[in-house]
Amino acid sequence: MSQAAVREARRRWTGTIGWLLLVLASMVLIGYGIVRADFYFWLPTPAEMEESWVGNRFTCGGCVMSIAAAIWSHRRGNPVWVTVCVGLPGVLVGWAALAEPYNLMRFLAAVVAFPLALGGVAEVIWARGRRQRG
């Protein structure tokens, strides 16, 4: 392999690993926020509400990271379905957390969106980090 090819492969994998870490960090932050926020069948006490709001802040931070990963995915040239799947946790869980902060909707949104995001990550790894659009 020539030096240029080695440099190109190293640059491609560096960007890919950074993107993968951003996606996985967003999912970890969303998951931690959901677990920390918990869910309630009735309106929680003021102390529980404060704990729920702390968890919602973690969730919203993870949602912002997920949307940033989707934008980065588009800029990297990944397929559109990968970009959409990576952004779904940010959109679905973020919407659920804002619409109903005390019920199970966030959990259900994460159950739907996380496997799709992991599928997008697997596709990028399987393609060995190469740009897939022309």
Give a short overview.
With 134 residues, the chain is mainly α. The chain has helices at residues 3-37, 46-76, 80-99, 105-126. The chain contains four helices and no strands.
Separation of termini? Answer: 24 Å
Give a quick account of the main beta sheet: strands, pairing sense, barrel closure: none
- In total, the number of strands is 0
Globally, the shape reads elongated
Q: Counting H and I runs of at least 4 residues, what is the number of helices?
A: 4
What's the quaternary structure here? single chain
Structure commentary:
This protein has 134 residues and is mainly α. 81% of the residues lie in helices and 0% in strands. It contains 4 helices and no strands. It has helices at residues 3-37, 46-76, 80-99, 105-126. The longest helix has 35 residues, at 3-37. It is elongated.
